[in-house]
Amino acid sequence: MEIQMRASSEGGQTDTIPVNNLPQKYYAMDMPFYSTMGVYNFEDRCEIIKEIGYDAMHMSIWDGRNWALAQQLETVKDRFGLDVAGVYIVLDLSLGERDIRNSGILKMLETMMEGSTVELAIKSVVPGMKPSDPAGDKPVAAWLKQALAIAEIRNIRILLYTHITHWIDKHTDAIRICEKIAHPNLGLVFSSGNWYMGEGSGLGHTLRRAMPYLKQVNLSGSRRTPLGFFQVGTIEPLDMGEMDNFAIVALLNRLGYQGYLGYTGWDEGGDAYNKLERTLRVLKDITRRVNQHPKWGSHLS
Question: What's the rounded Cα separation, in Å, for the pair 127 and 93?
């Protein structure tokens, strides 16, 4: 692994960046397979993701009632030749810890494949609490203490997932929790679509603060419109929308991020294969341009 120095536009700051000589790997969340017409079955999702050329699949568990679904992931490598980038699940403490939608998450951690990655969105803490309210930090930390005790034994990563309108509404909320708990099995996901529809500015400062905890990245095209997701914006393939994912990946590269790049694809409908294929083509081209022209996109800092 080489070390490369690159100057940032932030006051002449210089980032010391390890250059990853390994090929970039890509994953697809399974959210493009959901539409108003139904949901593709698990086998079809895996076969399509593999045929298109992604390195890994990613599964939506949604809540603790579905905890047993995670056991399917143990066979994915052998059956489909795919790695598993992670599972997505939602915690809603306003329902009470004993509600199966929450307690089932702990059951999933106890029974799923060792070494897994769990991406955890936290929808609410107590009824009526507003998104980002730090009053929720203490009960969230108490629940995470239970989850992390299991995760540590089973070598599972729990990554906080920023989701607009949820309690973890901003990436700075996820960073705050990671900083307070400071557990090696706790990290966060950067979601470009949720960042663009939510915070939408100050990305360089946010990502620099996030880097000690940033373990996974998912991307999507997006444009702000009241006709979109939560009446805020769209989630689209990477060749659509007004958000510049190239500049975002270039910034991540300058900061030394070396993990997976993934595609979200929620709430789109239509031909899932087509959108996944188009997006992988764009992801690969973004990686090529970032590697060949590392100074491009330096306006985003």
Answer: 9
